[in-house]
Amino acid sequence: MLGVIVRRLLLAAPLMVIISLIVFVLGSLAPGSVAESMLGSSATPEAVRELNRQLGADQPVLVQYWSWLQRAVAGDLSSSIVSGRPVTELLAARLPVTLSLAVGALLLVIVIGVCSGMVAAVRGGFAGRVVEVLAVLVRGLPTFWLAMIAGVIFGVNLMWVPVSGYVPFGDSPSDWALSLALPVGVLAFGEAALVAIVTRAEMLAAMRSDYVRSLRANGYPWKRIVFKHIAKNAAGPVLTMISLVFVGLLGGTILMEQIFAMPGLGSQMVTSTANHDLPVIQGLAVFYTAMVVVVFLLTDVAHGLLNPKVMAR
Amino acid sequence: MNKLLLEVNDLGVVYRGRGRRKDKVALDGVSVAIGAGETLGLVGESGSGKSTLGGCVLGLVRPEHGSITFDGRDITRLAARDRRTLSTQIQAVFQDPYSSFNPHRTIEQTVSETLTNLPRMSRQDRRTRVVAMLERVGLDGSALERFPAQFSGGQRQRIAIARALLPEPRLVVCDESVSALDLSVQAQVLNLLLELQADSGVTYLFITHDLSVVRHMSTRVAVLEHGHLVEEGGAREVTDHPTHPYTRKLIAASPGSDAEVQEARRETRRAMARLEAGGTDADVHALHALEIQAVIEALAEPLSGATGGFARVLNEFTHEPVALDKLVRLRAAILDLAPRTSAAMTSEVVNRRVADARERLCRSLAENDRALHFAAQCREILVAIDSRQRERAVSVVASFDDTRVAEHRATTGRP
Amino acid sequence: MSAVIEGASADAELRAAAERDAGFLRRLARQPLTVGSAAVLFLVVLAVVFAPLLSPSGPMEQDLLNIYALPSADHLLGTDQLGRDILSRMLHGGRVTLLGVVQATTVCTLIGMTLGLLAGTLQGGVEVLVMRVCDVLLAVPGLVLLLVVLAIFGQNETAAMITLGIIMSPTLIRVVYSATVAVREEPYVAGARVAGLNSRQIIMRHILPAVAGPALTQISLVAALACLVEAAIGFLGLGVVPPNPSWGNMVTDAQQAIVLAPWMLVPSGGIIAVVALSLTLIGNGIRDAYAGRASGSVSAYSWRALTPVVEREDRRPAPAEVKGVELETDRPAPVLSVKRLSLDLPRGRSHVRIVDGVSFDVGPGEALGIVGESGCGKSMTISGVLRVVPMGARVVAESIGFRGVELTTLGESEMNAVRGTGIAFISQEPISSLNPAFTVGHQLQEAVRLHRGTGRAESKAVAHDLMSRVRLPEAEVVGRKYPHELSGGMAQRIAIARALAGEPDLLVADEPTTALDVSVQAEILDLLRDLREQSGMALILVTHDWGVVAEACDRAMVMYAGEVVETAPVRDLVSNPHHPYTQALLRSSSVGAEPRQLLPVISGSVPAPGSWPTGCRFAARCGLVQDRCLTAPVPLVPTTGGVSARCVLVPSTLEAVR
Ligand SMILES: Nc1ncnc2c1ncn2[C@@H]1O[C@H](COP(=O)(O)OP(=O)(O)O)[C@@H](O)[C@H]1O
Ligand code: SF4
Ligand SMILES: [Mg+2]
């Protein structure tokens, strides 16, 4: 098992490097330089050149990247050109919001998705149809729109939850939970259907397999067949789906933070995009990727534990 | 053998393992040859390399070493273009009648694929030719616009044959072409293949794991085991008088539909198992089982000449005193009444112990003055075999040694 | 996700379905939902393209006296905060969104198809490289990278859409790649190569058509996603700059006015939903049409559907055959006694009869062979007895008695108690009949624990004992392996050991040796015989191989087109068959035939379920057919010596009795 983890970690590192390199190279393609945007349009060319030299921006891209990487590994993601604050500081301040959203939604997705997928596979009929229809709807309905409708219904009309804002956990756990309810709910609603549909399909496929037929014909109780034998085989693809869903969820948090006015990484991202604040954007992008990599790593490990063939590879 | 059409020389194939999987030697120094118009049957268990050999001939598998000569020309490593040209001369019929057709293409499209590398012909000519070929295999023109799903397994295999024979190839590789078919359909397809060969003189490389089918179809037979050629020869010789233990094992294991033969074979297998486990008197039991089996096999499937050898040895037995070694030879000849006794499928050690038992029993026969009586019994067996009297023959074998009858009754529960 | 029915392998079913009538477009056109979605989408695109002609007013035209208006004849969809006509803005805004969708989808399609096909066909280094790049791209949170690009290229819509296309391509690459690889392994591609086609022809004729279905499905979904993402960018205010309209920033407008004019949410988000939904539905439709099934038919399948409807048929006024069977009273009471068992499977909306009134008995310790060509209902007969059937099946029987218990009256859980401890089962594919995710030792111990209620240590001991009974050496070592690490013969031994765990009185084996080599087959058959002799267990062995029947069974029952045509002791059946079908079948075997001479064959093939004739079902292929064979069903009648046959030519002993 340890071997699998180590191997995946070794694979994860180059992945991070590649992603950050892509972001960095893209950044270097940007018209105008960081110095220009820092000094404003009235700056003299000499001043710009001088600042560029100080920032190292006159070096070749790869050299710049190398020094950025060195600093990044040491925990320094440089500073915002707008506010001048270190990117790491921004990250640290806003991370709890985004993490609460993403992790909360992921947990909800797993619980709702897997459970409803199982119910649909075992009971079929109405439950199956509901899952199918939902899966179509979530692929077709814009989440930000749904979020607003949900806001109107639950926030404005029913007033069950606050319409916007974020309360830190430290301030009040119950308000924290309430402030998360809407965005997490909307996010999870969408992605859970995808997990459910995969769960159901995998379980149905297993139900038609030869080994389930043999188990049934040899008198195994249905609960044992479904929750032990089928579940273990269906878990692999479901895990893969969950890790992909997490990527989608991260995108969703950006929208939710924007809609519900939550001070997370996403709203920072949007602001920085509008401001062309490249260092912040680079830092954020790399950080988002790191979160994905961690989740992929976890699902891979779970995969390895479940599936002997993966272990053997 | 007719003029050689295909010669495979010292062929070796290695499948390279990926990742942690090891390399696998699929063929190792295999040489076979087929004369024009003949059928070479290729038998062996799964994984023995039959299909790999077929694949090499078809250019689907790249050999590691060795050569393949077709009609005097080396085709081992042809360029893709030459290979395509050759496709008009070498064709194939594969096993699975379901997956060997693209479900989305009509029968006409599928069948006429093999005409791709012939000189361009008009659509009308092409269609006429396809229809003629479909009719030859027992279908008709209405099949043209239909899709594979609309045909049964047997019909699809006919279509596959039509497709292979359409460009009038000289060699057709039939890879397990009838293995997925039911008995009644299998017979239809085998007949079709034989008829087509009689008509056009096409040569078959006939790959199968089924010994009775290969015996029925082939002029020559080659037996593969784990990528090695273990036996090759005329079809009758190999299937009726196999020399290699592996071939004999294959033959002995393939169940016929004669229940009595099955029982005799089973009895032998048991006796052999007991012998290997080292039971008391196990060697005598084993010998008895083999003798009974030989007689029953000889009765079930009489082979011309098989009893001849036995009769010859017997003829030397005219007067006393009988030398012990003659008696032993006579008794050993009983096992040669049928080639399929399991004697051959067991290890040397076991065979030696059976031979020891035989000698011991013969000595006891001689000492008890029963040698001539034994010869008379043998004659009776010959008569019984000739006149197809199974019961009589078996009861005689069963009474060779005094203790026999009772024992046999005890072990099988039958009189 | 596919509507494969149990029993048939996924591929086979998919293929069969795809072939049913190969008109993919025709099938697509028969789906109302897909056609409707396509029509809606077409209208929207048309309206957007001709926006300047169609829109009632300019997209920026303000009417400050008439802000936040609800729909009216002047403004079909009302007006926004500046009194601009929402319909006009929607039509104009759609041009940006749809253009973006087209751009992103095109880029994605180009990359996905090219790289997917390349990776799938070229193998080797290219394959590895492309798939690694996919892995990397899949780990990129799409919206984040989009924002990066937007930041860098100054909110350039086209750059963003091209990036989006790239980000979405890995899924398409994977879909195309796996479809290509699946086809690449198909024997028909090898066949095409042998037929002399070159690579280009193979790709055009065989690979592209097979890839088209899954790829089109994915492309529709990609387009839907592109629509949603483009709107999201607009919504974040990062795309088209207001006051120019886009579908996204119209939602932003609506958000500002959410309390004042909630109506604005409806058209602005609605249009995005309509387009994205249509695209999704079209994708689903393509998928279903490609797989050849009616839309949404999957929902009929579930674990619950695996439990068949069991009907108990009332005892009829004793038909001849039943009376005949009852005449034989000298045999000991049977372990299993089946009377008039039938089984129906769902086909379309109705059911089709697969097994038709099969009756048989199995005595204690007896081995009964069920023989016949494939598709005659052998497997379904035993499935019906065990009630382990494909989804949606229906079992009808007059009686199924097992050890004196009437199985037809049992509920599912009571029936489950009989399975395993009373009747055990082994199947045809030894390796796939074991769960791939557990070691075989674990599975064996589980069976022991389950059926004998033993503790952990004892179960292990019993499992080892079972393994030695099925002659598996080194129980410890073998027990630690997974099914895929075993040979077919070893896996079948494990399956047999598992079946023995419940010490059943009857073992049902469905073609247990068909997938094995002959020498392994002989070992397994010997094993079954020895086990039977040791424990007095009865055996039902389904097979199409006469050799196996002769080797392993005492009595045999020949099935043809869903019914029993002859039953007799094996010895007699082989040496002296009564029914013309049995006779002809035995004659057509190549065993012992004169080599290279034509075999006597039965012409034609077995009629399919659902198209059985009224009279004798073998009539169309029978050489002895007479008029009276065709008019009425022929009964199964007993003749001498424990033989029964279903043929007008076989004299019945019943006549004599009467
Ligand atoms: N899962 C299934 N779904 C639909 N039809 C089936 C299924 N399994 C078998 N059939 C059909 O039932 C008939 C009998 O099948 P089966 O009992 O498997 O025959 P056998 O075992 O004699 O080969 C065949 O026509 C077959 O096509
Ligand atoms: S009933 Fe008639 S058609 Fe049927 S098998 Fe007998 S003779 Fe042939
Ligand atoms: Mg079957």
UniProtKB/TrEMBL annotation, chain A:
Pfam (any one): BPD_transp_1
| Assigned keywords, A-Z | Cell membrane, Membrane, Transmembrane, Transmembrane helix, Transport
UniProt key word tRNA processing: no
Alphabetized InterPro entries for the sequence:
BPD_transp_1_N, MetI-like, MetI-like_sf
UniProt-annotated location(s): Cell membrane
Residue intervals passing through the bilayer: 9-30, 99-122, 134-156, 176-198, 238-260, 280-306
Signal peptide residue numbers = none
Gene3D superfamilies linked: MetI-like (1.10.3720.10)
Topology with regard to the membrane? Multi-pass membrane protein
Q: What is its main location?
A: membrane
**Stretches assigned to the ABC transmembrane type-1 domain:** 95-299
Q: Which family does it belong to?
A: Belongs to the binding-protein-dependent transport system permease family.
Q: What is this protein called?
A: ABC transporter permease
UniProtKB/TrEMBL annotation, chain B:
One MF annotation (Gene Ontology) recorded for this entry = ATP binding
Record-linked SMART domains: AAA (SM00382)
Q: Does the keyword Ion transport apply?
A: no
The ABC transporter domain covers 6-251
Q: Which Pfam families match?
A: ABC_tran
Answer whether the UniProt record assigns the keyword Nucleotide-binding to this protein.
yes
Cite the entry's keywords alphabetically.
ATP-binding, Nucleotide-binding, Transport
Q: Which residues form a coiled coil?
A: none
**What superkingdom does the record give?**
Bacteria
Check the record and name the InterPro entries matching this protein.
AAA+_ATPase, ABC_transp_ATP-bind, ABC_transporter-like_ATP-bd, ABC_transporter-like_CS, P-loop_NTPase
Residues spanning the membrane: none
Q: Write out the similarity annotation.
A: Belongs to the ABC transporter superfamily.
PANTHER family referenced in this protein's UniProt entry, alphabetically: D,D-DIPEPTIDE TRANSPORT ATP-BINDING PROTEIN DDPF-RELATED (PTHR43776:SF7), TRANSPORT ATP-BINDING PROTEIN (PTHR43776)
State the protein's name: ATP-binding cassette domain-containing protein
Q: Which organism is it from?
A: Nocardioides astragali
Q: What is the lineage of its organism?
A: Bacteria, Bacillati, Actinomycetota, Actinomycetes, Propionibacteriales
TrEMBL record, chain C:
Which residue ranges run through the membrane?
33-54, 98-122, 129-153, 159-177, 207-240, 260-283
InterPro entries with a match to the protein in the record: AAA+_ATPase (IPR003593), ABC_Ni/Peptide_Import (IPR050388), ABC_transporter-like_ATP-bd (IPR003439), ABC_transporter-like_CS (IPR017871), MetI-like (IPR000515), MetI-like_sf (IPR035906), Oligopep_ABC_C (IPR013563), OppC_N (IPR025966)
Instruction: List residues of the ABC transporter domain.
Output: 336-586
Keywords of the record: ATP-binding, Cell membrane, Membrane, Nucleotide-binding, Transmembrane, Transmembrane helix, Transport
- Which superkingdom heads the taxonomic lineage of this protein's source? Bacteria
Q: Which family does it belong to?
A: Belongs to the binding-protein-dependent transport system permease family. Belongs to the ABC transporter superfamily.
Protein name in UniProt:
Dipeptide/oligopeptide/nickel ABC transporter permease/ATP-binding protein
Q: Which organism is it from?
A: Nocardioides astragali
